[in-house]
Amino acid sequence: MMGFSNIILLILIVAAIYMVMAYNNLVGLKQRLLSAWSDIEVQLKKRYNLIPALVDTIKGYTKHESETLENVIKARNMALNAQTTNDVNRAETMYKSAVSGLFGLSEAYPDLKANENFINLQNQLQTIESDIESSRRYYNATVRDFNAKIESFPEIYIAKQFSFTPYEYFEIDKTIEADVYKMPDIKL
């Protein structure tokens, strides 16, 4: 028969094992979240690397549209310098608006719209946008899971003890996002 001290010891051992498992689970969720953010950064960098080629292609056709081109470069630079999720969200909103204006130029310049390099860059950009959207959905799902876990009982105590804090979602202004995805269809 177990004594009272043995029962207390068993409860303490079970509690310690649970705490270690819960802590390791939180660490695993956080690492998955950071990996998901890294995937987003890779896709964003791919996109930002396309911008100079796109601007150069458009420059040759649009002599009087320097403001639109400057806005795209300014948005790209802001996005490249973003440090936090909040900064990236703001930069993405600015970028989406600028790119929407950039693709609007193609409607005014039929030669540009038919340019093979422009079509290729536009197709690459649309593919990357789709990849970013997929990465964003995955990241936001990992944020949801992590945030829910650190706010759940009893993990909330472990999260507070080890300074696990909630992460922000990666969201873009929906109206701007809708405008960008209405890029003109290119027919070859």
In terms of topology, how is this protein built?
Layout: H1 4-59, H2 66-80, H3 85-108, H4 110-114, H5 116-150, H6 155-161, H7 174-180
Helix pairs in contact: 1-2, 1-5, 2-3, 3-7
Please, could you describe this protein's structure?
It is a single chain. The protein contains seven helices and no strands. With 188 residues, it is mainly alpha-helical. It has a single domain, classed as de novo design (two linked rop proteins) (Up-down Bundle). The longest helix is centred in the first third of the chain and has 56 residues. The radius of gyration is 24 Å and the shape is rod-shaped. The relative contact order is 0.14.
Q: Which bin fits the share of residues in helices?
A: over 70%
Q: What's the CATH first level?
A: Mainly Alpha
Low-confidence stretches: 176-188
N-end to C-end Cα span: 84 Å
Task: Let me know the average pLDDT.
Answer: 83
Cα-based radius of gyration, to the nearest Å:
24 Å
- Compute the number of structural domains: 1
Characterize the biggest β-sheet.
Answer: none
Strand/helix succession = HHHHHHH
The helix-and-strand class reads mainly alpha
The H-level CATH homologous superfamily, spelled out, is LemA-like domain
Quaternary structure classification: single chain
